[in-house]
Design goal:
GO terms for molecular function: ATP binding; DNA binding. Pfam families: AAA_lid_14 (PF25601), HTH_50 (PF18024), PAS_9 (PF13426), PTS-HPr (PF00381), Sigma54_activat (PF00158). The protein is an alpha+beta fold and 675 residues long. It has 29 helices and 25 strands. Bound molecules: adenosine-5'-triphosphate. The site of adenosine-5'-triphosphate has 18 residues, from α16, α22 and α24.
Length: 675
């Protein structure tokens, strides 16, 4: 870079005419406009490009002032000399020229000041789309320095300037909205003609982001207001808004109809009374006013203060019809009661001891039974567990023992059905040596072994009447006598019995002693069959999948689509034991991470399909009659509308309405109901 300070010799200094002739001289000498960009003039600390007429003039350099010429290295010595000579040439101008210069100067300074200070951005390009002028506002809005804009092609430095289009079409374009950085601007673009020839174009643009923001806020405000009006008009309450004098500013339609004749001035005061109004303004607390009777109807009056920055600005007064409030209160009370009931039920269920955690299932009937079992586990009372085979009776018996204070003592299980009749007595109560052939030494029975612990008498219904009598004695006296002995042995044994038989039917048939039944059935615990709690199937399947993964070293994570549904459709006569075996088999057969329908036994996976066969006779019936036959047949197999609908490929709603139409509700799932 090369700098040089020179004294300006021209009469009138660097005025418009001389600046213009300097630029004309430079443009005639140098073909490359961009080269000229590398020459600047500095005056009183302000540096401007040598080809920017308005900027040059705005320096207001007078004759005799010193200016600094700054040349980049690429400027040739000849050009430098020409420029220096231009400034140091002190050719005297004539009176008329001087006066012309003064007028031109005055005019251009005014124009320059006006354009520079206008709040809108302005960019001027010449016919080659080279930027020849930018004002301060444009520099600010574009966030690019004037130096980086001037003498550059507009489409290069301001890609969205679109002045090229104006130069091509010669057409003006007004008020186009455009995004600039994050601001919205409104741009006017116009061509500049001289003597009918297009010599450039100008763009004037204005930042309208604030306007846009205000506009969108106004729009939102208007929408909100409309929404609020809609809400206030659609509530059944009667609502009024007042100012701090109590004068009505707004009332919803309902209030307007109800109190149309009431004076709007001091409306709130008239409605709630002077004392209540004064209290509201002073204390600024919401309160319920008395019940008001208007046109023979009772209303509850609620008053809320409107506070802005803690200052009282008015009130919201609402009237609610007393009948509605009363019915709501009744509903609320009923709901509270129901919630409390559900809470109690839930807490019952949630409070099961840890020893019950191995029993999977959350269905209501099971949880009710487990809650009872859990509660009685702490007592010594005899428990009778009933339920079909495989419903978990032994599991529950063990859980009762584990959560009792006998848990560190023996739990002795006796399966009464597998012990031969002639041995059952000695098995239960023990025998003395020589009591019968083969009794070569004294042996303790299961009751003695269970002393201080629990004895679990499984399949109690299979005991013969003789043993039943002996058992009754143990239950009454808490003591036994060994077979062949005459010594009574006192015992402290907790008895849990279980059966899958119907003991009351056996009593009727005199196969089970009534007195024993009542001794056993002190605390009955019934375990529901799996088909009555199918909601537990997914939980159980998950549990067994994980269990057999561990046991068989598998890592099964998923179920094929239809797998769980297939299990849900089956009626599980063998209950959880059957389900457990089914899952063990599917886990064992699967070769990857999925349990497949094909690995289910056929009678489970094919159920839904194969049972739907209807026998048609030769007589042709109406379509409706056939339809009834189909529903009559299918409904037997499915315990719910949902499963029936799935099997028939119809909606739940259609299945329910057809069964109702043909009066077949009662046969739904009958095939698998407990007998
Ligand atoms: N709710 C359950 N959660 C997890 N496993 C269960 C559940 N119920 C039963 N089982 C399992 O099912 C199988 C059968 O259970 P259990 O032997 O307790 O049934 P049961 O009613 O005593 O049968 P049975 O009358 O034939 O003796 C067992 O392997 C048991 O672990």
């Amino acid at each position: 870079m090369h700098e040089m300070i020179i004294q300006v010799q021209q009469k009138n200094g660097l005025h418009v005419r001389s600046a213009a002739s300097l630029i004309a001289m430079l443009q005639n000498t140098v073909n490359d406009d961009l080269k000229l960009k590398n020459i600047n003039i500095e005056y009183k600390g302000v540096s401007v490009g040598i080809t920017n007429l308005l900027s040059l003039v705005s320096l207001k350099v007078k004759q005799g002032d010193y200016i600094k010429l700054i040349f980049e290295d690429i400027i040739s010595p000849e050009l430098k000399t020409k420029i220096i000579r231009f400034f140091t040439n002190n050719e005297q101008a004539g009176m008329q020229e001087l006066e012309t210069d003064r007028l031109l100067m005055e005019n251009s300074v005014v124009m320059q000041e006006a354009v520079s200070n206008m709040p809108n951005g302005m960019i001027v390009v010449n016919s080659k789309n080279i930027i020849t002028f930018v004002n301060d506002a444009a520099v600010r809005l574009l966030e690019v320095s004037a130096n980086d804009l001037l003498n550059r092609r507009a489409d290069k430095v301001i890609p969205h300037s679109r002045l090229q289009d104006i130069l091509q079409t010669g057409q003006t374009r007004f008020a186009e909205k455009q995004m600039l950085k994050n601001n919205t601007i409104l741009v006017n673009r116009a061509p500049i003609y001289l003597d009918g020839k297009l010599i450039g174009a100008v763009a004037i643009f204005q930042d309208i982001s604030d306007l846009e923001k205000i506009n969108s806020e106004l729009k939102k405000e208007r929408e909100l207001q409309e929404l609020l009006n809609l809400v206030l008009d659609s509530v059944t309450d009667y609502i009024t808004l007042t100012d701090n004098d109590g004068t009505c500013m707004y009332m919803n339609e309902q209030m307007d109809k109800l109190l149309d004749s009431m004076d709007r001035e001091r409306f709130a005061e008239n409605l709630i009374g002077k004392r209540a109004w004064t209290k509201l303004a002073a204390e600024k607390n919401a309160f319920y006013n008395d019940i008001k009777i208007i046109h023979n109807e009772s209303y509850v009056v609620k008053v809320n203060p409107i506070l802005i920055d803690s200052k009282f600005h008015g009130s919201v007064v609402s009237l609610s019809p007393w009948n509605e409030v009363k019915s709501l209160m009744n509903k609320l009370e009923a709901m509270e009661e129901r919630a409390k009931y559900l809470e109690d039920e839930l807490s019952k269920h949630l409070q099961l001891d840890d020893s019950f955690s191995s029993i999977i299932g959350r269905s209501g009937a099971l949880m009710d039974s487990l809650t009872i079992a859990n509660k009685v586990s702490k007592m010594v009372s005899t428990v009778l567990i009933t339920g079909e085979s495989g419903t978990g009776k032994e599991l529950v018996a063990r859980a009762i023992h584990e959560s009792s204070n006998r848990k560190n003592k023996p739990f002795i299980r006796v399966n009464c059905s597998v012990i031969p009749h002639n041995l059952i007595e000695s098995e239960l109560f023990g025998h003395e040596r020589g009591a019968f052939t083969g009794a070569d030494k004294t042996r303790q029975g299961k009751f003695e072994l269970a002393d201080k612990g629990t004895i679990f008498l499984d399949e109690i219904g299979t005991l013969n009447l003789e043993v039943q009598v002996k058992l009754l004695r143990v239950l009454q006296e808490r003591e036994i006598e060994r077979v062949g002995g005459n010594k009574t042995i006192s015992l402290d044994v907790r008895i849990i019995a279980a059966t899958n038989e119907d003991l009351s039917k056996m009593m009727d048939e005199k196969k089970f002693r009534e007195d024993l039944y009542y001794r056993l059935n002190v605390i009955p615990v019934h375990l529901p069959p799996l088909r009555n709690r199918k909601g537990d199937i997914p939980l159980l399947v998950d549990h067994f999948r994980k269990y057999y993964n561990r046991l068989l070293g598998k890592s099964i994570k998923h179920y094929e689509q239809g797998f769980l549904e297939g299990l849900g459709e089956y009626h599980w006569p063998g209950n959880i034991r059957e389900l457990q075996n089914t899952i063990e088999r599917a886990v064992a057969l699967s070769g990857d991470e999925m349990l497949y329908c094909r690995d289910l036994p056929q009678y489970i996976s094919n159920r839904g399909r194969k049972n739907l066969q209807v026998n048609f006779s030769d007589d042709i019936l109406t379509l409706e009659a056939y339809e009834k036959q189909i529903f009559e047949h299918a409904a037997h197999f499915y315990p719910s509308y949902n499963q029936l609908a799935k099997a028939l490929g119809i909606t739940h709603k259609t299945a329910a309405s057809k069964l109702r139409k043909y009066n077949l509700d009662h046969i739904l799932g009958r095939k698998y109901q407990p007998t």
